[in-house]
Amino acid sequence: MTSADRKYIRLWYWSGALLVFIILVIGGITRLTQSGLSMVEWRPIMGIIPPLTEEAWQKVFDQYRQFPEYQQLNRGMELSEFKFIFFWEYLHRMAGRLIGLVFLIPFTWFVVKRKFSSRQLVRALTLLALGLGQALMGWYMVQSGLIDQPYVSPYRLAAHLVLAFIIFGCCIWFALDLYPERRGIRMKHSPYLKRILAVFIGILILQVIWGAFVAGHHAGHVYNTFPKMNQFWIPPETWMLEPLIRNFFENVAAVQWIHRVLGTLLGVMGIYIWAKAFFSEPSRRLTWWGVVLLAVLLLQYLLGVYTLLYHVPLVLAVLHQAMALVLFGVALALYHTLRKGELSASLRP
């Protein structure tokens, strides 16, 4: 691969990461406005064309009225109200199709022009498989809310969200790998700090999963106090379901409690990682990444707290979800920096 090839493929990966971020924001708005079940059919090709006449709108609305969300939650909804929720789900699906085009058109060109190395081809095919899987998972998730209950399965919502994070992370990692090696002094970066950061990223992924369970169970609308959950540190109903393991995924109190605990643990770990990076003979690069990680983490923690205290307002909730993706990207970039050894000072554990 030439340096120009690496540059164009790198930009392609970055464009993928940006589009995933945008669709995550749109998806958050879609969920929070309860718009996700407004389109009751999955038509990957013909679904590109929205209703264009009043007759077409009425037909789509009549289809929607046959499903549980209208019958149980929105009975009596006017067509104008339906158009609002339809817009967000339509925009969400169009953003998904745009990502597909932004992937496939350059991918085809890179293949035809033989711009890929064998490694980059494998990575591109991996992203293709993940993208197809995400599209199928999105419809599989929507289907769960079209049968008996007008709510999508929290398990499928979690899978859909985690897949988005995986695609985003792959785009960032692949892009960072295509930057030229830095010349200069090679440092023996701390394996200890790398291990701590790896644990941090693992817990962050768990936090994203439980964030999806919080969203899926609408758990942010209860126990709207902080730091205690009403007057309790651990509510008495936290472990009331049988068998015990169900509480981790289906008990509203337990799901929110786990989300709080994981968030606090991440906060403590983030402060420790920053201090270790700053005081262990820091390089400018490592210090900068440590400060960015801590700043994003603290902002994310505050967004989570205020989202809870104010009963999940739209703006705060969307920012909270978007900032989770930013935090994940920053943590990956810091880990990549350590892994590549692009530091100008050695670290001691």
Distance between the termini: 37 Å
- Supply the number of structural domains: 2
Strand tally is 0
Please state the average pLDDT score.
Answer: 91
Overall geometric form: flat
Q: What's the number of helices?
A: 11
**Biggest sheet architecture:** none
Q: Percentage of helical residues?
A: 55-70%
How much β-strand is present in the residues?
A: under 5%
In N-to-C order, the SSE pattern is HHHHHHHHHHH
Q: From the helix content, strand content and strand pairing, which structural class follows?
A: mainly alpha
C-alpha-based Rg, rounded: 22 Å
Description:
With 349 residues, this protein is mostly helical. 69% of the residues lie in helices and 0% in strands. The chain has eleven helices and no strands. The longest helix is centred in the first third of the chain and has 34 residues, at 79-112. It is flat, with a radius of gyration of 22 Å. The relative contact order is 0.11.
